[in-house]
């Protein structure tokens, strides 16, 4: 579903943009994903909307045919968020031990305590952490928006499958600029248009 609107209290979820994961062989230039995510972060912060910076530091204990992809012990700095995200004191910091950002964390409680009803999801990888987080957000009752030009994967077919077949069933999709335009055109709590 194309992007139509953003709720008054929408949060940005930045998934797995951390030192140990951004060196993968992604199908899109990772610098572009980071830059678009940062542009979204900047607007969310200006609008005083929640920004959640999520990293991964483990995995669920169940067996899989492919074996562990992310498991401790990690090298020094592996879980560190990218400096380009410019972590701020008001940001929600979330460390997950699963693909999605809700299953092994208190993110749902923290967002709902702030009155959040919608989330915008960015980060890596499209068919992993991004998709799992979008699924979990949808299942928890949040409206979901995915910034398609601020996500990427290491497998083209997986990325395209998520975008074409999964995301339309979970929420709306759009470009980071479309999301920014909706945010910048929004009225503030006083009913007056906020300065961009």
UniProtKB/TrEMBL annotation:
Record keywords: Hydrolase
SUPFAM superfamilies, alphabetized: Isochorismatase-like hydrolases
CDD domains: cysteine_hydrolases
Classification via Pfam families: Isochorismatase
Signal peptide residues on this chain, from the entry's feature table: none
Claim: Ribosomal protein is one of the keywords in the record: no
Location of the Isochorismatase-like domain: 10-177
Gene Ontology molecular-function annotations: hydrolase activity
Gene3D superfamilies tied to this protein: Isochorismatase-like
PANTHER family cross-referenced by the UniProt entry: ISOCHORISMATASE FAMILY PROTEIN YECD (PTHR43540:SF7), PEROXYUREIDOACRYLATE/UREIDOACRYLATE AMIDOHYDROLASE-RELATED (PTHR43540)
Protein name: Cysteine hydrolase
Organism: Paludibaculum fermentans
Taxonomic lineage: Bacteria, Pseudomonadati, Acidobacteriota, Terriglobia, Bryobacterales
């Amino acid at each position: 579903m194309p992007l139509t609107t953003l709720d008054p209290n929408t949060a940005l979820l930045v998934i797995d943009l951390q030192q140990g994961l951004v060196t993968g062989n992604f199908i899109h230039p990772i610098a572009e994903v980071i830059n678009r995510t940062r542009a979204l972060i900047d607007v969310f912060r200006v609008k005083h909307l929640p920004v959640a910076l999520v990293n991964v530091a483990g995995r669920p204990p169940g067996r899989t045919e492919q074996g562990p992809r992310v498991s401790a012990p990690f090298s020094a700095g592996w879980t560190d968020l990218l400096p380009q995200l410019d972590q701020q004191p008001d940001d929600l910091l979330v460390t997950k031990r699963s693909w999605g950002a809700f299953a092994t964390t208190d993110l749902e409680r923290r967002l709902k305590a702030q009155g959040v009803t919608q989330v915008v999801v960015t980060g890596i990888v499209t068919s992993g952490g991004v998709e799992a987080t979008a699924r979990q957000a949808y299942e928890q009752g949040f409206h979901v928006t995915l910034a398609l030009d601020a996500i990427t994967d290491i497998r083209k077919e997986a990325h395209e499958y998520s975008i074409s077949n999964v995301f339309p069933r979970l929420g709306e999709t759009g470009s980071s600029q479309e999301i920014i335009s909706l945010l910048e055109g929004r009225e503030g709590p006083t009913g007056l248009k906020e300065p961009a």
